[in-house]
Amino acid sequence: MKITSVKSHVLQYELPEELGYSQQYYARRTAHIVEVSTDEGITGWGECFGPGAIAVANAAIVEKVIAPMILGADPLDRDVLWHRVYNLTRDHGQKGMPLQALSGVDIALWDIAGKVAGLPLHKLIGGAHRTRVPAYGYGMMLKRESVADHVARFADEAAAIRDMGFVATKMKLGLGPRDDIKLARAVRDGAGDGFRIMADANHCYTTADAFHVGRALDEMEFYWFEEPVAPEDLDGYRELRAGLRVNISGGEAEFNRWGWRAILENRGLDIAQPEVCALGGVSEYLRVLALCHAHFTPVVNHVWGSAVAVAVNLQLLAAMPPLPGGLNPWEPMLEFDTTDNRFRDELLAEPLDIQGQVKASGGTVAVPDGPGLGVEPDRAFLAHYAWNT
Ligand code: CA
Predict the structure, then answer these.
(1) How many A from CA of 250 to the centre of ligand 1?
(2) Which candidate, 214, 234, 232, 233, places its Cα nearest to that of 224?
(3) Which of 88, 118, 148 is a domain's end point?
């Protein structure tokens, strides 16, 4: 079996309204789907993390840098190909875009392996520890509106996401420490006592500001405080983890086993959030998962992007061993963005209908059991939303 082509599909559409997080506002949604074809007619699908123009640059890495390294090779040799690509690009980026590009290709090779074996990805890894995964809904994005309008909207949105059936919800921070505490209070009031809530700073604070906000989150019984400080600030992470009760989470901006080794050995995380579409694909995710569990750090995957990313994450969450084990073990969750996303809701020939499943089941989503990722993109949809740069 031979790889005959490696193609990127970069998709984009105008959002119905602008959304923001602590670093920027955005008005368009992008997705970057990778398609690997073979001489035996089997096609694998993957996805690369990275919005907007980042996706366009990543597509150039996929098609101009990685494709020539693997064309003609056996797609089942995915770990051999991973290391060939990584070793040949190491001098030009051990983190960031080369790894994001490699991730999409690696995921597609795992999809091919599953289709060749006639098995879902979770079976290739070792089986399903769970056949349904609880989902949390995030929303409560920033907008160009007053603090008072944010407060009112965050309270309403927290209640709405709870009523959709999600098992937890997550808000954005980023107006500044004093106003962010007001937003957190609105979310606690909107969601009600006892509902699991989390806050995501997208690394907008200094350590001192993060302590200020974190103490308020402690009082309001938030479950986790995500990316409080810059991903490079390993000591800030360690100090916050030692000094706050709320779980410190992060890792979506960390790459490969060597990056993860540093943050874990520094004891900076209560909960790890690896992004399979960025850190190096399924091959590298499995090594990072083992590293996290070797440090007794539970994992809740970071999930962003299209239905392809959701499917691969459902497969990985199914195959994640319990940590720690027990009669009532700690359970991971599926991250789900409740804002407008056609690439997740309409990309597939047979949509996953996450919202419908959550509503009907009391907050859980079934793991796809078809071969590979268990999902197939609709080619007419890919053509319709292609971003011709
Ligand atoms: Ca995040």
Answers:
(1) 7
(2) 214
(3) 118
